[in-house]
Design goal:
- This protein is α+β, with helices and mostly antiparallel strands.
- The chain has one domain.
- Helices cover 30% and strands 39% of the residues.
- The two termini are 22 Å apart.
Length: 99
């Protein structure tokens, strides 16, 4: 994940059904422009949430956590996009699910 000048990487383990559920939520968000789509890792290492305001703005927020180090590390992020970013994001996720 890169947010501004900060970036971080974690080995987040997700099940296919979690990604599929996220894709379904994201598709609903794109269609209605309201509601939310949430993806969370079972290990607590990933929290990713998008929320629509009904007018095309999508709030993106989340946290990446790296455990197993001398001290846990985390990267929190928050930014706003518009709905035109969602189709490409959805297409990429659908490729992952269908692989």
């Amino acid at each position: 994940m890169r947010s501004g000048t900060f970036e971080g990487y974690v080995d987040a383990y997700l099940y296919a059904w979690e990604i599929t559920a996220f894709v379904d939520q994201l598709q609903s968000l794109y269609t209605a422009l309201t509601g939310e789509a949430v993806l969370e890792g079972q290990e607590g290492d990933l929290h990713f949430r998008l929320e629509g305001n009904g007018r095309g703005a999508i709030t993106v927020e989340g946290t990446l956590r790296a455990f197993g180090r001398p001290r846990p590390l985390s990267l929190d992020f928050y930014f706003v996009i518009d709905q035109t970013y969602l189709p490409a994001f959805l297409a990429g996720l659908k490729k992952i699910v269908s692989a």
